[in-house]
Design brief:
By secondary structure, the chain is an alpha/beta fold. It has one domain (2-189): Lambda Exonuclease, Chain A (Alpha-Beta Complex). The chain has helices at residues 6-13, 34-50, 56-61, 63-76, 130-142, 172-186, 205-219, 224-229, and strands at residues 2-4, 81-92, 95-107, 110-117, 150-156, 164-169. Helix 5 (130-142) packs across helix 6 (172-186).
C-alpha cells in the first residue's frame, strides 16, 4: 500500500504519458518557504486552540496571528458538532488516498469542511485544484450524507476585519468528473505489477481484467465510475 495526497496527484497529473515515472521523483520532502512556515505555525496554533490548550503567550508575542484567530473565532465557535485536525483516506488499488481537514462541521445530513489559509495569493483554479476536489471526494466516500450536502469553505485570513471566504459545493457530476480525472492520473503511477516486464500470459487473471477495463475506459466502453468499481479494495 502506497500513500498519496493532493500534492503528489498534482505532480503526477503534469507528467507526460511517455515519461517513465519513478517514486524517487515524487516531492515527498518539499522545502518550505517562509510563508509556508508561517502557515504551518498558524495551523499548529489553531489545533492547540481548538484542543483547549493555552495559547495566550503565543498570541501576545505574535499580534498578527492573534488577529487571524479573531477572524476565525466566529467559525470555530459554531455551536454544532465539529471535529478539528481530521485525516480521511480511501484505498483504491495499491494507492491509499489521504487528505487533511482543519475543521469538519456536521449538522443533520450536512458536512462542511473548513480550511484556513494564511497565503496572500488566492489561486485562480482553487475550485478545480486537487486539494479541493480530493477533499470533497473523500468526504463523499467516507461520510454517510447526500453528496449535494457536502461542501468546503476556504478562509483566507488577512489584515481586514473579516477573512475572505470561498465556498465550493459538491455534486454527482463533479464526483464523476473527479473519478475520471483520478483514474487517468493513477494510471501513470508505477504499481507492483509493472515493476518488471511480464508477458500477458504471465499476468494473473485479476491483473488482466484490470488492464482490459482500463482499455475500456479509454475507449469509452465504460464510464470512470464503472472503471473504479472494478478495482478491488484491499483491507488495511
Amino acid at each position: 500500500m502506497k500513500q498519496i495526497d493532493a500534492e503528489m496527484l498534482e505532480f503526477v497529473e503534469k507528467i507526460e504519458h511517455n515519461f517513465k515515472l519513478s517514486l524517487k521523483y515524487l516531492p515527498l520532502n518539499p522545502n518550505f518557504s517562509s510563508e509556508r512556515r508561517v502557515g504551518r505555525q498558524f495551523h499548529l496554533l489553531m489545533q492547540q486552540l481548538m484542543m483547549g490548550l493555552p495559547v495566550e503567550p503565543f498570541l501576545e508575542a505574535y499580534p498578527e496571528m492573534a488577529h487571524w484567530v479573531e477572524q476565525l473565532y466566529p467559525i470555530i465557535s459554531i455551536p454544532t458538532q465539529k471535529q478539528c485536525n481530521v485525516n480521511k483516506g480511501k484505498l483504491i488499488g495499491e494507492w491509499y488516498l489521504v487528505a487533511h481537514y482543519d475543521l469538519l462541521v456536521e449538522e443533520k445530513e450536512k458536512v462542511i469542511a473548513v480550511d484556513w489559509k494564511t497565503g496572500k495569493y488566492i489561486p485562480d483554479n482553487l475550485e478545480d485544484s486537487w486539494q479541493t476536489q480530493l477533499r470533497l471526494f473523500l468526504l463523499t466516500e467516507t461520510q454517510n450524507v447526500p453528496i449535494e450536502n457536502i461542501s468546503i469553505i476556504y478562509c483566507f485570513v488577512n489584515e481586514d476585519e473579516f477573512p475572505c471566504l470561498y465556498q465550493f459545493n459538491y455534486s454527482i457530476e463533479l464526483h464523476e468528473a473527479f473519478i475520471e480525472r483520478l483514474s487517468m492520473t493513477l494510471s501513470k503511477l508505477p504499481t507492483s505489477s509493472n515493476n518488471k516486464q511480464f508477458n500477458d500470459s504471465d499476468l494473473p487473471v485479476e491483473t488482466s481484467e484490470y488492464s482490459l477495463n482500463l482499455q475500456k475506459l479509454f475507449s469509452g466502453e465504460i464510464t470512470a465510475t464503472e472503471y473504479l468499481a472494478t478495482i478491488p479494495e484491499v483491507e488495511i
